[in-house]
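[Discussion] Sanity-checking designs against the backbone

I'm trying to build intuition for which residues belong where. Below is a C-alpha cell string of 379 positions. I'd appreciate it if someone posts a full sequence so I can compare it with mine line by line.
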C-alpha cells in the first residue's frame, strides 16, 4: 500500500473536454466543448482555464480554485514551455509533484511530454472515479427524470403507429408511408421538448431489426416486429436514460409471438435475480441457457449472427454505457448501481425482439425505474 507521503506527491491530471469526458464533468461539474486542464493536488481540486472560460468556471464549477491559463503560460514560456503540458508542469513543479495519475484515454502525446519532463505517469482504467458507479439519491432522481421523458416520447411514437393504416403490408399515416425517419423525428422532438437530447435513436423493423445497432430506415412494415431503443441524455443534468420496446402494428405470426413471449419472460426473470452481490455473469448465462432450452440457438448462419449475441445489461449514468456489466464477462452488482436488463433474440426471416428496462440495485432486489408497459401488438 502506498504511503500517504507518496500519495501526496502524486497528482491527478486531466486534459480533456468535459462535454465528451464524463469523468471530467463528474469531477468538476463544469461543461465545456474544448479541452481544459483539471488537477487534483494534495487534496485540492484545480481548474486551469483559458481567458474565455475563467469567469464562467469560477461561478459554475465545483472545484476549489480556478487559475488563468494565460498567466501560467507567460511564466512557462521563458523556460521553453508553450503547450498545455508545460502549463501543467509549471503548476506541478511549484507544488513539488513528481508523479501523475491520468485516465486511460489521456492523450499519448501529452503522456510522452510529461515523461520527457521527468514525471512518472500512471494510468487508471474506468471507472476512474469508483464512486461514480454507485449512484446517489440525486443522481437516481436525474436518471428517473430522463426516463420519464423517454417514456413520454416513445408513447407519442407508439400512438402514431396505432393511428397508421396498413396498405400492401406497409404502414401509412396522413397519406404517406410511415418511415423509421418520421417516427425517430417524433421521438427526438418530444425529447427536446423535455430538455433531453437523443442521438442514434433506433426504430428498426423486420430484417433491419436483426442487426441490434441498425438505427432503421425507410418504410415501416406491417405485421413485423419494430424495435424501439431510445437513450437520451438530459440537457440540464447530463444523465442518461435507456429503454427498449418491441411492437407490431398488424397481426404477428405465431412464431413471432412466441419469440416475443420468450424474450419477455427471460427479461422479467432476470430482473428478479438483480440484487446486491448478484453476479452479472451468472444472470447473463441464465438467460442464454433459457433461450437454448426454448430452442433458440445462437451462432453464425450464412455469414450472419443470429440468436442472442450481446450482453444482458450495462450501467447507466453520465455515460450511456458504463460499469457495471451484466454479460459474459460480468460484474458483481452492488446496492446503488443503475443497470439495464435487455435480452434480445434476432433471426433473419422471422424478426427480432429486444426488451429493456433500467433498474436500481437494492440490498434485497431491485427497483424498476421504467414504468412503460410491455405491449407487443398495437392493433
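Best answer:
Here's mine. Compare freely.
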Amino acid at each position: 500500500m502506498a504511503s500517504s507521503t507518496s500519495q501526496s506527491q502524486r497528482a491527478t491530471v486531466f486534459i480533456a473536454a468535459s462535454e465528451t469526458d464524463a469523468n471530467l464533468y463528474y469531477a468538476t461539474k463544469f461543461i465545456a466543448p474544448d479541452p481544459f486542464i483539471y488537477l487534483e493536488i494534495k487534496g485540492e481540486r484545480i481548474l486551469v482555464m483559458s481567458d474565455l472560460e475563467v469567469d464562467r468556471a469560477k461561478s459554475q464549477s465545483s472545484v476549489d480554485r480556478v487559475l488563468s491559463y494565460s498567466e501560467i503560460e507567460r511564466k512557462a514560456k521563458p523556460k521553453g514551455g508553450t503547450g498545455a503540458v508545460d502549463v501543467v508542469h509549471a503548476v506541478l513543479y511549484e507544488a513539488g509533484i513528481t508523479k501523475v495519475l491520468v485516465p486511460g484515454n489521456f492523450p499519448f502525446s501529452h503522456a510522452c511530454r510529461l515523461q520527457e519532463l521527468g514525471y512518472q505517469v500512471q494510468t487508471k482504467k474506468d471507472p476512474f472515479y469508483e464512486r461514480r458507479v454507485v449512484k446517489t439519491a440525486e443522481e437516481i432522481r436525474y436518471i428517473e427524470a430522463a426516463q420519464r421523458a423517454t417514456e413520454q416520447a416513445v408513447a407519442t411514437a407508439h400512438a402514431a403507429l396505432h393511428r397508421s393504416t396498413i396498405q400492401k403490408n406497409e404502414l401509412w399515416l396522413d397519406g404517406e408511408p410511415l418511415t423509421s425517419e418520421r417516427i425517430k423525428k417524433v421521438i427526438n422532438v418530444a425529447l427536446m421538448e423535455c430538455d433531453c437530447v437523443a442521438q442514434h435513436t433506433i426504430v428498426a423493423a423486420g430484417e433491419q431489426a436483426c442487426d441490434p445497432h441498425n438505427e432503421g430506415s425507410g418504410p415501416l412494415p406491417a405485421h413485423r416486429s419494430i424495435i424501439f431503443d431510445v437513450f437520451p441524455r438530459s440537457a440540464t443534468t447530463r444523465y442518461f436514460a435507456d429503454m427498449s420496446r418491441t411492437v407490431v402494428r398488424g397481426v404477428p405470426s405465431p412464431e413471432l409471438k412466441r419469440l416475443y413471449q420468450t424474450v419477455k419472460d427471460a427479461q422479467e426473470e432476470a430482473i428478479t435475480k438483480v440484487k446486491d452481490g448478484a453476479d452479472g455473469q451468472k444472470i447473463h448465462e441464465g438467460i442464454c441457457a433459457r433461450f437454448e432450452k426454448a430452442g433458440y440457438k445462437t451462432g453464425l448462419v450464412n455469414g450472419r449472427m443470429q440468436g442472442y449475441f450481446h450482453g444482458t445489461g450495462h450501467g447507466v449514468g453520465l455515460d450511456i454505457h458504463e460499469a457495471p456489466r451484466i454479460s459474459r464477462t460480468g460484474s458483481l452488482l452492488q446496492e446503488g448501481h443503475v443497470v439495464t436488463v435487455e435480452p434480445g433474440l434476432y433471426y433473419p426471416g422471422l424478426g427480432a425482439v429486444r426488451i429493456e428496462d433500467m433498474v436500481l440495485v437494492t440490498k434485497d432486489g431491485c427497483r424498476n425505474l421504467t414504468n412503460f408497459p410491455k405491449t407487443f401488438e398495437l392493433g
